[in-house]
Amino acid sequence: MERRRFLSACAALAGMAGVGEAPAEWVTASPRLYARSRLVDTFGAPLKASKLAARTNYVFNYPFASTPCFLLDLGRPVAGADGILRANGAQYAWTGGVGRSHSVVAYSAICAHKLAYPTREVSFIRFQSDRPPTSDANVIHCCADHSVYDPSAGARVVSGPAPQPLAAILLDYDSDRDELAALGTVGAEQFDAFFDKYDFKLALEYGAGKAKVPAGDTTVVRELTQYCKQTIQC
Ligand code: FES
């Protein structure tokens, strides 16, 4: 059922992309599909979505070997949303949470402002479950310049300088197996800018030319605390 729901949503979005009567500034952005990548745990076993700890930061790399994404169980059902705006005026729909409780979401962890992202050393961007002095609880907050995103609403910008939401990662949920796979993105990808900005650093970290290779048939999900050494709080 989950898979059918996702595929029909994609079909609807793809159909909307060609609607001729829409005003020029109302261009609809279509999902972008990449190679399917199954989410696995650190032992290589398929990740069980219902085993995710609620409101906890998990990270996996997709669609490329070096591009991190957040995987979050928000702890409550999350409905989809449409009319989400990119900086270029294009709109798109986000299909909402997946999993048994429709509470699991995934987003690119590359900040839409100046591309801060979780590295092996440090992360300025993370989901925060409690309420710090500078923003609300249950948001994704980038402490670099305080862009705040709502993961329950397609990562819309709540506050701060980010000009557009984080790109959403399309998840396929197998309800029989309780397993997840990443299929693509919807929203404003920033992978080209990311590779341009961090070319030298990524080459050092992953090896020359290896940062841009596809994530692969499987991609490992880790808690953010295992993915990088220090998470900046703000
Ligand atoms: S890079 Fe994230 S708010 Fe500036």
CATH level-3 fold name: Rieske Iron-sulfur Protein
Q: Judging from the principal axes of the Cα atoms, what is the shape? A: globular
What is the terminal-to-terminal distance?
A: 40 Å
Instruction: Evaluate the radius of gyration.
Output: 17 Å
**Roughly what percent helix?**
10-25%
> How many domains, as an integer?
1
Low-confidence stretches: 1-25
H-E order: HEEEEEEEEEEEEEHHEEHE
Strand order of the largest sheet: 12-13-1-14
Number of strands: 16
What do these coordinates show?
With 234 residues, the chain is α+β, with helices and mostly antiparallel strands. The protein has one domain (2-109, 168-223): Rieske Iron-sulfur Protein (3-layer Sandwich). Helices cover 15% and strands 31% of the residues. It has helices spanning 2-16, 191-197, 199-206, 224-227; strands at 32-40, 58-61, 68-73, 81-85, 91-94, 104-108, 122-123, 125-128, 139-142, 147-150, 156-159, 168-174, 179-186, 218-220, 222-223, 230-231. The strands form 5 sheets. A 4-stranded mixed beta sheet has the order 12-13-1-14. A 4-stranded antiparallel beta sheet has the order 6-3-2-15. A 4-stranded antiparallel beta sheet has the order 8-9-10-11, with no helix packed on it. The protein is globular, with a radius of gyration of 17 Å. The model is unreliable at 1-25 (pLDDT under 50). The structure holds FE2/S2 (inorganic) cluster. The site of FE2/S2 (inorganic) cluster has 11 residues, from loops.
